[in-house]
Recover the amino acids of this structure.
């Protein structure tokens, strides 16, 4: 179940990267594609590194699960879980940012990834053992609580 969930997050993160990359190639501003601007390049590069890290962890989980090392499989799954959701958050936010105003509209699917993240974090509750308060990923600041 955990491996499948990480795979789903990976596919969604990859979609965000591919969509943002294609848009950066197609969208022109000041006579050239926006993908040629340094800030957009850096954002896309960060998203690519993140996708590749999650890919490597997914392969590690699959390899460890196939082998007899239960300890390694557990460690790999924990690492994948810790990185995968934060990476997906950054990819979804980056995709919407590169798409600009179009990323927030109902006509484009980019906003669905942000809504999916809100669902993941509000329906799946992690609680702090000492306080009983919900714990949310450090990079997930889309939900205002208060």
């Amino acid at each position: 179940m955990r491996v499948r969930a990480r795979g789903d997050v990976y596919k969604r993160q990859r979609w965000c990267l591919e969509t943002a990359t294609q848009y950066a190639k197609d969208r022109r501003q000041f006579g050239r594609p926006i993908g040629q601007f340094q800030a957009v390049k850096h954002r896309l590069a960060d998203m690519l590194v993140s996708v590749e890290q999650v890919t490597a962890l997914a392969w590690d989980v699959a390899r460890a699960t196939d082998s007899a090392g239960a300890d390694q499989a557990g460690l790999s799954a924990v690492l994948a879980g810790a990185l995968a959701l934060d990476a997906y958050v950054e990819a979804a936010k980056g995709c919407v940012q590169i798409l600009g105003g179009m990323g927030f509209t109902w006509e484009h699917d980019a906003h669905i990834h942000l809504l999916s993240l809100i669902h993941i974090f509000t329906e799946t509750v992690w609680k702090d053992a000492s306080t009983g308060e919900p714990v949310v990923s450090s990079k997930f600041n889309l939900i205002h609580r208060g």
Summary: Strands lie at 28-29, 32-33, 126-127, 134-135.
